[in-house]
Design a protein that fits this description.
Blueprint lengths: L8 H5 L1 E5 L13 H4 L4 H5 L12 H10 L4 E7 L25 H11 L4 E6 L28 H17 L6 E5 L8 H10 L4 E2 L31 E5 L16 H12 L4 E6 L9 H17 L7 E2 L10 E5 L2 E5 L9 E2 L9 E4 L7 E5 L11 E5 L12 E5 L5 H4 L10
Parallel strand pairs: 1-2, 1-7, 2-3, 3-4, 4-5, 6-7
Antiparallel strand pairs: 8-9, 9-10, 10-15, 11-14, 12-15, 13-14
Helix pairs in contact: 6-7
Bound molecules: alpha-D-glucopyranose (GLC).
The site of alpha-D-glucopyranose (GLC) has 8 residues, from loops.
């Protein structure tokens, strides 16, 4: 899949860092504290007086991202709370009206430009601060307008357009625009058209005012994707390091290493991009636990990425749904993204011996055989079987095996009755 223009960086980079950062990092509970925690707007606003991120250094964020093998960044410029991380002229509820005063989007953009790191900007359509946003108690909205509010969606969109104009003109070339939470479900393609005019290299997601360029399955809620082997449109899955929150949360319920490996693998192997989120602390630093998680995921990814990048999805070559397959020429990769219940993997109906089989996690050779298994007595069909995998020793790890063939016969390997489903 290609757009055929400057947006194609998206298909080169594949794995990106999502950053949720804003006033909500101060109480460190959830990025939607104001709504989920029932905090009055006037109380929430006071957090701006405590915004002093003295350890903020975007180069440290990018160092970490690069170390993990990530190639782009997506930053929350304005979340649902309405607080803006840049020097906007459209509202006082922004960084320049805090004790810190710096334009943080500018500083992130400058670091990204210097390091050739495509930068995407997240922007929330819903707004719990702007007097014209028609809060009506729909999902992700305040229960209703607050005293003094003047709900008027058309005027709110004027404000939003003026902000988009600032973001698309003052911060250099952008890699993307990442809308979120269009609760109104209002459609207006002219908004993205303006972004495209100003930022031809920007990929735009599907959570704004039209369908945009790519889909955004989130966390593991999109269970349906598990039954799909290929995607019919560009896709970028997003996931956070913890299950409860995207912004920094003290005492967060963090995912296991294996869960994140599995999540990254299952999307990359299907040809989707993957955006993994960290929530920096209010001072701008990243919690050492999150740093450790990303480093460990990066270590796994560096060993296994050849199975996930510049490959074609190939899961249709086997009926075994506990593994995902990808291929590059006559090399086939077996990604054990589901828990192994035995120390072996059967690749029915493949029945060809590879010339070499290697476990990418360790570099060790993997034993293979083509044989008729007792469970296949009715058909007497032989199949390729990988044996004695270190399923116990590496129980916390997604195992990935590289199989090299002289020839990988398409016909012999094709699964009867194509089970492929597309979105
Ligand atoms: C969900 C959350 C929101 C977060 C977004 C990131 O929509 O509600 O807070 O920013 O996911 O994808």
């Amino acid at each position: 899949m290609r757009f055929g223009d400057a947006r194609d960086w998206f298909f080169e980079k594949r794995f990106g860092l999502f950053i949720h950062w804003g006033l909500y990092a101060l109480p460190a509970w959830h990025e939607q504290l104001q709504w989920r925690g029932r905090v009055d707007r006037s109380e929430y606003e006071k957090l701006a007086g405590d915004w002093v991120p003295h350890r903020f250094d975007p180069d440290l964020w990018l160092d970490l991202a690069e170390e993990a093998g990530m190639g782009y960044l997506c930053l929350t410029t304005k979340h649902h709370d309405g607080f803006c991380l840049w020097a906007t002229k459209q509202t006082d509820f922004c960084v320049t009206h805090t004790p810190d005063g710096r334009d943080l989007v500018y500083l992130v953009a400058e670091a990204c430009r210097r390091r050739r790191f495509p930068l995407c900007l997240y922007y929330s359509c819903v707004d719990w601060h702007h007097p014209n946003y028609p809060n009506q108690g729909r999902h992700h909205e305040l229960p209703g307008p607050l005293p003094g509010d003047q709900p008027d969606h058309a005027r709110y969109l004027d404000f939003l357009r003026a902000q988009v104009e600032e973001l698309c003109t003052n911060y250099g070339p952008l890699g993307g625009f990442w809308w979120d939470m269009n609760v109104e479900e209002h459609v207006d393609p002219s908004i993205n058209a303006r972004i495209r005019e100003l930022q031809p290299g920007a990929v735009i997601n599907n959570r704004g005012y039209d369908e945009g360029d790519f889909g955004t399955p989130e966390r593991d809620w999109d269970g349906g994707l598990d039954g799909q082997m290929t995607l019919s449109r560009p896709t970028e899955a997003c996931q956070s390091v913890g299950i409860e929150s995207w912004g920094f949360r003290l005492g967060e319920d963090y995912y296991t290493d294996r869960h994140l490996q599995r999540s990254l693998a299952k999307y990359l192997a299907r040809g989707a991009n993957y955006l993994l989120n960290l929530g920096p602390r209010a001072d701008g630093s990243i919690d050492p636990h999150q740093v450790g998680m990303l480093r460990r995921l990066g270590a796994w990814y560096h060993k296994t990425r050849e199975a996930l990048i510049d490959v074609e999805p190939a899961s249709h070559l086997t009926t075994n749904r506990d593994v995902l397959l990808t291929r590059r020429g006559t090399t086939l990769y077996v990604i054990c993204h589901r828990e192994l219940v035995t120390d072996s993997v059967k690749l029915k109906p493949l029945a060809v011996m590879p010339t070499r089989a290697t476990l990418l996690n360790s570099g060790d050779e993997v034993e293979c055989e083509v044989t008729v298994l007792p469970s296949e007595h009715a058909t007497q069909q032989p199949c390729l079987r990988l044996r004695r995998l270190p399923a116990n020793e590496l129980a916390g790890t997604v195992l990935v095996v590289r199989l090299e063939f002289d020839e990988l016969p398409e016909a012999a390997a094709a699964v009867e009755g194509d089970e492929r489903l597309v979105r």
